[in-house]
Amino acid sequence: MNRKYVDVIFALIVFSLPFKYIPQVLWLNILGGPFGQDLVIYPLVIGFVYTAYCQWKYKNVVYKWSIFRKFIIAYLTVLLISLAWALFDYPYYDLILNGPAGQIEKLPKPLAIFNDLGIPITKKALIEFWMFARPIKTIFFETISTFGGAYMIFCWYHNRIQRALDILLKVTTVDLVIIAAYGLVDVCYQNGQMWAQNFITMVLPFIHGNVSAKADYYQFHTPLFWGAQNRSIFLEPSYFGIYMAFAFPLLWWNIFRQTDVRKKLSLCGLFIVLAFEIFLTQSRTALAVNLCVFVIFALICLYRVQKKLFILLVILGIGYSSAFAGSMEFLKYGQVPSRIGEWTPLATKWQNMQKKEKELNQSVQKKGKELNQSAQKKEKESNKKIPQTSATEYVEHNLKSLSGSGEKGIHAGSNHSRFTVQKTHIQIGLEHPIFGVGTSLRQGYLREKLDKDPGGEVQKWNKNIDKWGLLGAGFPNLGDFTLRFAETGFLGLGLYLFPALMLFWQYGKILIRREMEVERISPFIFSALSFVGIMATGLGDGINITFCYWTVMAISFLLLFSKGDNNI
Fold first, then answer.
1. Which of 233, 288, 420, 468 could form a disulfide with 472 if both were Cys (CB 3.0 to 4.6 A apart)?
2. Nearest-angstrom CA–CA distance, 40 and 147
């Protein structure tokens, strides 16, 4: 195996992590799973093909194959048994047969073919077969692209860990520079600068697929403008935070290990800019997860009581404080008035305000002094900034709302939907505790249990199911762990989490060793923080939103279970 080829492929994998939901012409839907619409699928496929070729030719690529093989066989076996058992006792076939025809539009053709061949088969039997075959493809390709992708990276670098770490940190830094720069364009857009609106209009279609001026997320459209929330290059603001939960600890690690003062200061500046943009996302997921990661790092520093770690903690604390103060000032004085939920671009609002101001001034010139005074008053009112946003209000609206009952606050509807769906997932899992209700089969159970739920978003999803059918629409993934519990039971969820639990156990044993030198322990600290951060997103979103989880899982296994060069 050519190491240079492998390094390039791995660098492309790391680089492609933020670029989710690429233009439709580039989709690889045949691969199924969650990554067919992500840029990362291309280097992954290239990597799989090249690794398989080298293993066939040289027979020396795979490492600890027997352990991985046993795990994958056990995992796939449980998921397939879960699916078969669930379809045997599936109670919603009639809803599919009598529902909208669009959800089964591909079935009439094979049904006609079977009838022409003289093979007697009913529409229900064909649907049953199709509902078994379709999830199998998803299960297989998702397993290969996730666990298989992590294992492939592990095989590539099990005897040269330092090279993998260098590529990871360098390429992630490149990504962060791009993200920060595009995020500043978003800031200028929020400030009402027309060039920023024009830039976004021109560039975004090359980043995301199905770009539209107005978002229709559950029909897979990407909004061209997100309004008052910063999202940089990401599909939505929360995805920005999810990626940073993975990337911030790596950036801190890069700052920590730098000996060149100018590079260290540059990386610190990059961190402050990114933190500023994270606060401007006004995303509860982004704020909560990244705050959690920073608090865990602070606790580690307090436990280990090592000078270099304390210095970094102080630097990060100052950086976060400066970024938060800056974001509050921007929200008070720098942002063009716009209510969240309005789809008129902020820059366009600003342009319209200027046009009205000009027209008003022309009118004032034709009228007397008295009218001039009145017009000036109206002009002043039309140009006032958005309501003052205090730090207390910001925290109340974006963090404390997460723990609310969903009865109050600006996020009431969203909180209600999120918690209700997750609670129902748990209820479904407890009713089917061993194997769950089967992969991709939860929608009918959720629809039945949430049919009369008063939540606005819940009702929207119910209406989409009524319109498109159980197979054509459904409820989003609002918690990876509860969803997998509902679909695959304790067995499926346990096997899915088994590698992560192994890593947590090993990280814990290493991090409690106070005698280890700070330079020696630092890779384990920051990789653990990255792993914990991205895994925490599974509490409210899907871990597979990006390939970050699987990348850091591979790095973690390299650090903890490889016997290669550990001079890190």
1. 468
2. 14
Parse the chain into domains and list their residue ranges: 1-335+414-568, 346-382
Mean pLDDT of all residues belonging to the chain: 84
Q: What is the pLDDT of residue 262?
A: 94
What local confidence, expressed as pLDDT, does residue 387 receive? Answer: 44
Rounded CA-CA distance 14/9 in Å is 9
Q: How far is CA 9 from the centre of its chain?
A: 22
Both tokens assigned to 316:
């990060």
Amino acid (one-letter) located at 345: P
Task: Say if residue 253 is exposed, middle or buried (CB neighbours under 10 Å; 0-12, 13-18, 19+).
Answer: buried
CA dihedral 111→115→121→125, nearest 10 degrees, is: 0
Residue among 228, 318, 226, 332 at smallest CA distance from 275: 318
Tokens describing residue 101: 């025809």
Q: Hey, which residues does 215 pair with through a beta bridge?
A: none
3-state secondary structure 17-81: CCCCCCCHHHCCHHHCCCCCCCCCHHHHHHHHHHHHHHHHHHCCCCCCHHHHHHHHHHHHHHHHH
Q: Tell me how far apart the alpha carbons of residues 541 and 288 are, in angstroms, rounded to a whole number.
A: 13
Spatial distance between the Cα atoms of 501 and 253, rounded to a whole number of angstroms: 23
- Give per-residue pLDDT as tens, 225-253: 887 889 999 988 999 999 999 999 999 99
Question: By percentage, how much of the chain surpasses pLDDT 70?
Answer: 84
In angstroms, the CA 316 to CA 110 distance is 60
CB atoms within 10 A of CB 488: 29
Quickly tell me which residue has 């053709």 as its tokens.
109
The residue type found at 338 is: S
What's the predicted TM-score (pTM) here? Answer: 0.87
Rounded CA separation 181/450 (Å) = 43
**CA–CA distance, 500 with 503 (Å, rounded to integer):** 5
Neighbouring-strand partners of residue 212: 223
pLDDT at 6 over 80: yes
Q: Classify 473 as helix, strand or coil.
A: coil
List Cβ<8 Å contacts ≥24 apart for 87-92.
Answer: 87/128, 87/131, 87/132, 87/438, 87/441, 90/131, 90/438, 90/441, 90/444, 91/444, 92/444, 92/448, 92/470
Q: Are 9 and 43 in contact (CB under 8 A)?
A: yes
How far is residue 366 from each of residues 189, 362, 363, 372, 379, measured CA to CA in Å? 35, 7, 5, 9, 16
Q: Is the pLDDT of residue 274 over 90?
A: yes
Distances (CA, A) of 40 to 15, 148, 203, 366: 8, 14, 20, 62
